Amino acid sequence: MNLQLKNWNNFCNYHTGDWKGSKKRYSPEGKVIRTWDVITHLHVNQDQSEITHQDELFYSDGTNEVKNYGIYKKPQTSALFLDSTFCWGSKIVKPDAIFIFEFGFRHKDKRVLCYFRYDETGKLEYSSTGIEYLNNKDTQQNINNYPELKKADQTWIGSLQKMTPNQVISEPIKTNWKSIKELNKDYLIQDLGENIIATCPKTVEQNKSFLIGVDWQINDELLKRGIVYYEAYELSYFTVENFSL
């Protein structure tokens, strides 16, 4: 199958529909600085040739707004879809320009969105997380803290696939468990609630390679990890790991 078409089909199959949920914005220090509710409408037409995207936003001060993102036409999309996981954002680090990146994970009728924004100086301005449920299900709050996985636990089995910006996907390979906190000890580690942990650099620079990663522990037996890699200043590749018992 054509790579662009496969990417488009993953978009249609895993992320279209009406998603209802809530979002939180975090400072680099990990403090919640804003919360709001959202209904995301991603509607695909009958022959799957177009997707319309509209967000309804409901803020805590009682105000609301509607954002229309236009129409995506088959098979063009700037996001990379590796099955039910996607990433989207700046392809290169530009001087004096805002840098953004987003991950999306879906499991059954729930999806997680993690967004990172860096200002014109390259410093992390904020990160945010969204928890959404398909078909307007009531949002739920998981009050459990992120379960710390034991480093000595050999029962976790990982499978990794790599996707390049031109949408080539590698065959899955087995991987060993390593805490996301160990990927780069100089990075920020943020607990975004709902068993979501993110790691990202405090600043992005045009001449420095870096990664941004997110873990979502779905349940006691399944964890999804997305990592995007930039080499020098350009998006190099995106990986998805699924860890299970």
UniProtKB/TrEMBL annotation:
<dbReference type="InterPro" id="IPR012674">
    <property type="entry name" value="Calycin"/>
</dbReference>
<dbReference type="InterPro" id="IPR022017">
    <property type="entry name" value="BFA1-like_DUF3598"/>
</dbReference>
<feature type="domain" description="DUF3598">
    <location>
        <begin position="6"/>
        <end position="125"/>
    </location>
</feature>
<protein>
    <recommendedName>
        <fullName>DUF3598 domain-containing protein</fullName>
    </recommendedName>
</protein>
<dbReference type="Pfam" id="PF12204">
    <property type="entry name" value="DUF3598_N"/>
</dbReference>
